[in-house]
User: Fold these one by one.
Assistant:
Number 1:
Amino acid sequence: MSLGFSFNMFSIQSPKSQILSRTRLSSQFINQTQVKSAPYTLSDYHVNSSQPFKLSTSSKRFNPITASTAVEATTSSFRNKNPKDINILVVGSTGYIGKFVVKELVSRGFNVIAIAREKSGIRGRNDKEETLNQLQGASVCFSDVTNLESLEKSLENLGTSIDVVVSCLASRSGGVKDSWKIDYEANRNSLVAGRNCGASHFVLLSAICVQKPLLEFQRAKLKFEAEMMKVAEEDSGFTYSIVRPTAFFKSLGGQVELVKEGKPYVMFGDGKLCACKPISEQDLASFIADCVLSEDKINQILPIGGPGKALTPLEQGEILFRLLGKEPKFLKVPIGIMDFAIGVLDFLVKIFPSLEDAAEFGKIGRYYAAESMLILDPETGEYSAEKTPSYGKDTLEEFFERVLREGMAGQELGEQTIF
């Protein structure tokens, strides 16, 4: 996940034989049940295949992956089918990227089964009817990805097999328990349940920032990535594609309205501490859809950015002022302010454990204020814009122009707004 966080006046870039008809499965309403979060270990589950999926019960945190892994893979039979005969299960279908992925897959003629909560959207504001409207063209199944038993029962009730799982799941807040519950546990449940229904390929929406994992949601994502890779190593009939995008447009649009009103553009330091190659939701959805059938994306970690050069916060601000025809006016905030706040929160957590998430949010903010969302060279420790692949046609400048005309409707950060 590229997680976006809004900081008051500024924003920083903080997943067979039967053909399922594309009718809404409105009868498949499964009640959601809560499960206890297990940050570093879960009970062993077994997948019905010749190569069982086993979860390590070690309580040690996962050591980060530092390089892309590509292994020999057997081309799955579903890739020889017509799109209309390929059943794709999408989890995280009502999220910011998920909605666009469902739309793109439907437009390409796939049979899409979208898993959704009964109350979806920011703070659960969308009911079933609104969800069905948002996911038109897909068969919608209401279930709970955090509960393996419920998810497996939901898929069993569909009476069809699954060819591919596409996960757009991501923690909404980035909090410690939420990260492990969604970025790790829910993704894992989706893999287990999908494989039990015949899925032989898994497309995961991850995030480029996991290259330098200092945060809980990054560690949770990496743990799942590693376990999925191990499944592919042990079962030549299973493949994966891990998509690691850079910044999303909405993560960079939080200051548009404020600058339009005459306020300064706020940035840390000199505005050059970090850079990114932002990608639009439409372009990212298209790339994720490519991963379903493209054999050159099998068993690959795929970092991806949008078109054009990498942009620093300073350059993003300059674009905005130019579009407004205003003289640039910047407010430079010392990064040390965040370091002080994080130090205070870390101290308070020792006394008040309930502040754990608040401390984590501070670290998330600090991370996105100083770290570039680009390929990280493990040898030099430097970020490289040149090595970060580009895809698509939508530019940040075009996004800013649209927001200036139409506002940020549909681009809200929701629970990701932390200050």
Number 2:
Amino acid sequence: MRYRCGGSKQPVKILVTGAAGQIGYAIIPMIARGSMLGPDQPVILHMLDIQPAAEALNGVKMELVDAALPLLKGVVATSDVVQACAGVNIAIMIGGFPRKTGMERKDVLSPNVSIYKNQASALEKHAAENCKVLIVANPANTNALILKEFAPSIPAKNITCLTRLDHNRALGQISERLNIHVSDVKNVIIWGNHSSTQYPDVNYATVKTQGEEKSVRELICNDHWLKGEFITTVQQRGAAIIKARKLSSALSAASAACDHIHDWILGTPKGTWVSMGVYSDGAYDTPAGIFYSFPVTCEKGEWSIVQGLEIDEFSRSKMEVSANELIEEKSLAYSFL
């Protein structure tokens, strides 16, 4: 993506749906301060929410004005999906039908199919060429699939879903276990679905210590923890936060979405990969035609799946469980089309 004109950067138009909600309220100042695209990239924010949230959305717009943010060159606050999507370069899809107490994942599929059909059609017709889309709203992987179906002119490679939150959670658990800074841990992998079937994999994760990189497995030296509590803690972290806050993850989800777009557009550091939900081409024997989380590197606005990693029997079994769940979700979602 290039946004330069006459030596200075043109503003990037960024759509945030569900902008009056908790994650939207957390991510909007991060974007406007440069956390997503860098400290020298001007932005124009397009904020979309449903009509009952219009007053709250206008309040967010007022706060953005009051914050006097130098990078923020314009704000659109609307409940009109066409106006919201007009000319956007990046779309961060946070809005969706929320899962409520007693609901199963399948219970939110039908209303989300309707929401994402509508928003996909608007992006298809009105977004800028080469618009990049990140799905945050759950079920994120399947919502991404619905959006792809109804926005056929947007290349599949330009649609991704958020598993960076799970990736960051895995990094955090390792850093706490080893009592080191999280920035010294890299190359964990989240395989599969953004759900309790995801598989956090540390087989290739390393830690920078005393000037050299060492294996996480070698340093932790506790397979019982790595194959048990570590995995379940990452898988169930969202539920634990809901139990503690009585609200779902907002700050960490917003931060992860910023990280995801930042690395996608600006690139991953050499020798480092991140986890992204992308459209599977069958890599690592995963089913083609679903959005599945893989380790990826990014360069010049394009992601590439890390190739050639050996998958042991334990990992394969975990990866297949998540793939099977995604196939079931796909089948159910398509029944609502």
